[in-house]
Amino acid sequence: MSSDSLVCLKDFEKYAKEHLNRNSWGFFSAGAEGCQTLRDNEEAFRRLRLRPRFLRDVSVRDMSATVLGQRVDMPIGISPTANQGLASSQGEIGTAKAAAQFQTCMICSTYSNFTMEDIMNSSPDGLKWFQLYVRPDRETTAGLVRRAERAGYKALVLTVDLPIVGRRYPDLRHGFSMPPHLRVANLGNADLSQNKKDRNEALDYGMGGPDQSSDRALSWKDVAWLRSICSLPIILKGILTAEDARLAVQHGVDGILVSNHGGRQLDGVPATIEALPEIVQAAGDKLEVYMDGGVRTGTDVLKALALGARAVFIGRPAVWGLCYKGQEGVAKVLSILNEELSLAMALSGCRSIADITPDLVVRDSPYSRL
User: Fold this and answer.
1) For residue 42, what are the contacts with CB-CB under 8 A and spacing of at least 6?
2) Which residues contact 106 (CB under 8 A, 6 or more apart)?
3) Per-residue pLDDT for the chain (370 aa), expressed as one digit of tens each?
4) What's the angle, vertex CA 272, arms to CA 269 and CA 273, rounded to 5?
């Protein structure tokens, strides 16, 4: 299939569904329980309307932004996704190279199939953050943090919404089997080859056995502990309420990635685009706020930026691109979003990211009453 026939992110999703095996497609596509949140992440964007302004000179548009003081060419990064080797032999290295090609940020998952060092060395000039699960064994966690610092990662992204893995029906029905040629490289000695149908093991991705992936006792004191053992900025991934955003400010974190884990954890939580405004308001100017979940078009990006996100991140679409053609496929996905955002900015009267303001977006309800 020619890349010319793949013109939007949904085309890449369709390609991936047709070409990934059931095991891999189920791993990447599954949502929690009835998938209400998974669906709503996308549908919530459709409930927002744009209020464009005209007669502005949009002949030149600047999409550059900064995240934690680092310049990126566009406010679209790549969220952490585990086991990208299921989509392509290039795995996370292909994704990292594509992100570097577009001078944007990639968040590397703890559960990558290449080591964090190999990923960094594949594209040393690319901006990378490291996603972290705090494991019950704190020394293992501390070791991951020290490695990330030494390798050159610029921030830690602490996932806070997974004390227990969510209930995902495809995993319950079919189990999840890691192909024997893949490994969780950052945790070198984990045995992932066994097909584990037992719920407590299968939904733990087989990574170290039950209750070993993340610590059920994780609390705010662990944020302070992380701060004490490293100098990297800390971003909390998974915050969905103003209450927790205010606590994040109190604990001195540097950023929040508004996320519901792609609808894979607690079903029925808000779509991230709808949770975003209250978190932006609660955070004020004390920390940076980003979001992921449901971003599929340039207008989705525009809406998120208007509602206060400093940048958005994509997860599944990058994997779909990886499935299509490795680095080239991820680059194509990023290129489409880049072009769509540029077009959306032009058609709404925005010359730069600074021009994208909250009055650009309104819920559809005022129009539905006309």
Assistant:
1) 294, 296
2) 77, 78, 95, 96, 99, 100, 126, 127, 128, 129
3) 666 799 999 999 999 999 999 999 999 999 999 999 999 999 999 999 999 999 999 999 999 999 999 999 999 999 999 999 999 999 999 999 999 999 999 999 999 999 999 999 999 999 999 999 998 889 999 999 999 999 999 999 999 999 998 999 888 888 888 899 999 999 985 444 443 433 334 334 433 333 456 789 999 999 999 999 999 999 999 999 999 999 999 999 999 999 999 999 999 999 999 999 999 999 999 999 999 999 999 999 999 999 999 999 999 999 999 999 999 999 999 999 999 999 999 999 999 999 999 999 999 877 666 5
4) 130
**Within its chain, how far is the Cα of 277 from the centroid?**
18
Instruction: For the full predicted model, state whether its pTM sits above 0.85.
Output: yes
Which of 44, 54, 64, 72 lies closest to 360 in space, CA to CA?
54
Q: What span, in angstroms and rounded, lies between the C-alpha atoms of 13 and 295?
A: 13
d(CA 274, CA 304): 9
Longest pairwise C-alpha distance within the chain: 62
Residue 311: closest CA among 333, 340, 341, 331? 341
331 and 98 Cβ atoms separated by less than 8 Å: yes
Catalytic machinery residues: 261
